[in-house]
Amino acid sequence: MRFRPVTFDRLVEEVAERVATLAPQDAPWPRVAIDGAPPAEPQTLADALVAPLRVRGRPVLRVRAEDFLRPASLRFEHGRTDPDAYYDDWLDTGGLLREVLEPLDPGGTGRVLPSLWNPVTDRATRAEYVTMPPGGVVIVDGALLLGRWLPFDLTVHLQQSPAALARRTADADRWRLPAYQRYDTDVEPVTAADLVVRVEDPRRPAVLE
Q1: Of 119, 154, 156, 159, which has the most beta carbons under 10 Å away?
Q2: 78-106 in b/e burial notation, b at 16+ Cβ within 10 A?
Q3: In this structure, which long-range contacts are made by residues 124-130, counting pairs with CB atoms below 8 Å and at least 24 apart in sequence?
Q4: Could you write out the DSSP letters of every residue in the chain?
């Protein structure tokens, strides 16, 4: 694989341009996934896309996958540090589909819920629904988003080598490393994503050509 080094600012502009050029008939409300383990800092890229897309005349709504986790009773059914449960059971894909992604299908209502569940309080967030204007973009960031049949219009995977991922993962989260290894094997996000960015150091990205 050949990677092209870019500055972070240049990466943001390239991704924003790809989003802005999505065909309206195929993506009336573009749904963008920024996929990456926490050490890859997917939220940083997702947040940075807001301003350049708005400059291009696109309203933007940010959604965090961690606001669509299942209740603790389901997430921790097999313990708090089970990597298979983290992989299979933590994300409420049904809620994310129902409240965010499916309403933005062609012919959908455009009415989305920015957050569903607070994993800290283990209660519903009671967020208000938002009606996206035509051409509005929803950007979802999180880990393990690909391979779940979620209807994103553009997917960006932030890739790290196992060594870099292990080095940058906090001690308290190292139990998740087998889940990321399984993800690489089962989903192959490097081939599944529309755009792959190597982030051995998130400050020095490189785009897969």
Answers
A1: 156
A2: eeeebeebbbebbbbeebbbebbbebbee
A3: 125/67, 130/61
A4: --EEE--HHHHHHHHHHHHHTS-TTT-SS-EEEEE--GGG-HHHHHHHTHHHHHHTT--EEEEEGGGGBPPHHHHTTT-TT-HHHHHHTSB-HHHHIIIIIGGGSTT---EE-S--EETTTTEE--PPPEEPPTT-EEEEEESS-TTS----SEEEEEE--HHHHHHHS-GGGGGGHHHHHHHHHHT-HHHHSSEEEE-SSTTS-EEE-
**Block residue for tokens 């790809």:** 18
Q: What is the rounded distance in angstroms from the CA atom of residue 209 to the CA atom of residue 199?
A: 14
Question: The whole model's pTM is what?
Answer: 0.97
Q: What angle do CA 3, 8, 12 make, to 5 degrees?
A: 95
Q: Which amino acid is at 154?
A: L
Spatial separation of the C-alpha atoms in residues 161 and 94, rounded to whole Å: 30
**How confident is the model over 173-208, as pLDDT tens digits?**
999 999 999 999 999 999 999 999 999 999 999 999
Location of structure tokens 């308290």: 172
- Over residues 23-65, the pLDDT tens digits come to 898 899 999 999 999 999 999 999 999 999 999 999 999 999 9
- Identity of the residue numbered 171: D
